[in-house]
């Protein structure tokens, strides 16, 4: 028994390390989305550039189901181990090359095109990785403990994001702001190749899963995993239920708590980028153990209501949570300390004109520090450069820095969202594995998972940002909450379907 547990921990370690690195590679793009929007897209319209970056980010999610089909089929035909070895190398290579692409100023529209191609390759790789890792671990796990053991794989996505934030923070710490903006942002992409190589060396010594080896020895593997998974009406019913009754809601809850929250802090609350990353990182660090707790709980009380409870809580509390977040940096409710006000004017001469920079900084009574920077673009004669509509070209940037109780209140609000994620995500690997038979498990579980996460979840940043931007254009007083309608509606629909149609007869007694 002790030997089996030791072997299982080796399986967990090897699988988790590779999956963690793939998530790191995938999320480094999202973590640097604001910076990347200035590097790979035209700089004359920052909002359009940021939306284009989010759309490119989302493209990686959209193709994940195709990666699930392609690599899932390979996994059910030739084995779990060799398939996710390929996905690891594909992901690492694509991430490294993103860090090598010249900027938009250097190669024009070829830059966003190359980024899009590599982002699509990342999505295909991740589409094959997760299903393989989850299936591999589940097939090594004892009956009645799959929720606990597979939940360790579930922590890798959050740790991947956490490590991406830490790497970015360390890079910013050791470089000046100018160095980071010029070339330092490339380092998090480039160093991933080292981590991928280490993971490859570890994974190549792993054995195939015992359940798959037995099925292969007995001649019970599938000759056509795609047809048996989706051409069989009985199995297709479970695929659709897994998607619309679990994975869809899990996807939007996951991306709201970890990506929409980060975007909201930076673009709506105008929080200092490093501080926003640190706040999210602290919440992730405290929240990650709950993946294992929720996974183990699902072994005791069942997968269904642990997952659906997380969705229901999200539906009921997202708007109050984000309202509270917004008010933390709402300057309309704060009192400025007049003695702290500082105004500075700078003028930087460039080849094509002059940047006139107006800086206004101050501190408020609750410790909040605010810096407004307005950059006006002038021609060589010192006259304002006009846009097509006749307005002067100006770029405004506001940065808010929190202190004391406000800082920790925001950490707490993000932490609550991370708890919802652990409830929906901790048990889902075991839930999906137990629905499908061994011979088509990799293929059947990968598709609903990656449609739920890749399509419904991956589109969340772009769709929610669009909804919020549209509400702001229409002068809605609570425009900052408009983006939440997408995850709330999707989670509510998933909760209803899951409540009605997920039953004990679908799989093992653990459900």
Automatic annotation (TrEMBL):
It is a multi-pass membrane protein. Residues 11-510 form the Major facilitator superfamily (MFS) profile domain. The chain crosses the membrane at residues 12-36, 48-71, 83-104, 110-128, 149-171, 183-202, 234-255, 275-293, 305-322, 407-435, 447-467, 479-502. One of its GO terms (molecular function) is transmembrane transporter activity. InterPro entries: MFS_dom, MFS_sugar_transport-like, MFS_trans_sf, Sugar_transporter_CS. The keyword Transport applies. Gene3D superfamilies: MFS general substrate transporter like domains. Keywords: Cell membrane, Membrane, Transmembrane, Transmembrane helix, Transport. It is found in: Cell membrane. One of its GO terms (cellular component) is plasma membrane. The keyword Cell membrane applies. This is Predicted arabinose efflux permease, MFS family. It comes from Sphingobacterium wenxiniae.
């Amino acid at each position: 028994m002790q030997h089996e547990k030791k072997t299982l921990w080796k399986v967990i370690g090897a699988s988790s390390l590779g999956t963690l690195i793939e998530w790191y590679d995938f999320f480094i793009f999202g973590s640097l989305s604001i910076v990347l929007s200035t590097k790979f897209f035209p700089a004359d319209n920052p909002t359009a550039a940021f939306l284009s970056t989010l759309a490119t980010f989302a493209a990686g999610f959209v193709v994940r189901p195709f990666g699930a089909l392609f690599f899932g089929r390979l996994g059910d035909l030739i084995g779990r181990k060799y398939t996710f070895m390929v996905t690891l190398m594909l992901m690492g290579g694509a991430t490294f090359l993103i860090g090598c692409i010249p900027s938009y100023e250097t190669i024009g529209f070829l830059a966003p095109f190359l980024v899009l191609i590599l982002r699509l390759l990342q999505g295909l790789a991740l589409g094959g990785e997760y299903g393989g890792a989850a299936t591999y671990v589940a097939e090594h796990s004892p009956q009645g403990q799959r929720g606990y053991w597979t939940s360790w794989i579930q922590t890798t996505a959050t740790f991947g994001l956490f490590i991406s934030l830490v790497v970015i923070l360390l890079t910013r710490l050791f470089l000046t702001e100018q160095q980071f903006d010029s070339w330092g942002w490339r380092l998090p992409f480039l160093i991933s190749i080292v981590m991928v190589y280490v993971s490859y060396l570890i994974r190549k010594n792993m054995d195939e899963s015992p359940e798959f080896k037995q099925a292969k020895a007995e001649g019970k593997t599938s000759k056509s995993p795609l047809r048996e998974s989706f051409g069989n009406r009985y199995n297709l019913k479970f695929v659709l239920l897994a998607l619309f009754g679990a994975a869809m809601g899990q996807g939007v809850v996951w991306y709201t708590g970890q990506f929409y929250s980060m975007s909201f802090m930076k673009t709506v609350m105008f929080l200092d980028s490093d501080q926003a990353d640190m706040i999210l990182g602290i919440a992730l660090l405290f929240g990650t153990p709950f993946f294992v707790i929720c996974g183990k709980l699902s072994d005791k009380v069942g997968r269904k209501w642990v997952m659906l409870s997380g969705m229901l809580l999200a539906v009921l509390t997202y708007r109050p949570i984000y309202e509270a977040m917004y008010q933390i940096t709402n300057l309309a409710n704060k009192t400025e300390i007049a003695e702290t006000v500082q105004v500075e004017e700078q003028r930087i001469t460039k080849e094509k004109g002059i940047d006139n920079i107006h800086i206004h900084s101050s501190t408020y009574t609750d410790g909040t520090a605010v810096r407004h920077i307005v950059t006006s673009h002038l021609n060589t004669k010192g006259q304002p450069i006009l846009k097509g509509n006749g307005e002067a070209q100006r770029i405004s940037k506001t940065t808010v820095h929190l202190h004391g109780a406000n800082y920790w209140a925001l950490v707490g609000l993000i932490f609550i969202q991370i708890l919802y994620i652990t409830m929906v995500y901790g048990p889902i690997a075991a839930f999906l594995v137990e629905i499908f038979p061994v011979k088509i498990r990799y293929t059947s579980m990968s598709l609903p998972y990656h449609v739920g996460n890749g399509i419904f979840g991956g589109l969340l940043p772009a769709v929610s940002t669009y909804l919020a931007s549209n509400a702001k254009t229409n002068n809605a007083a609570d425009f900052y909450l408009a983006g939440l309608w997408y995850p709330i509606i999707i989670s509510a629909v998933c909760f209803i379907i899951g409540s009605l149609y997920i039953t004990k007869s679908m799989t093992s007694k653990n459900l």
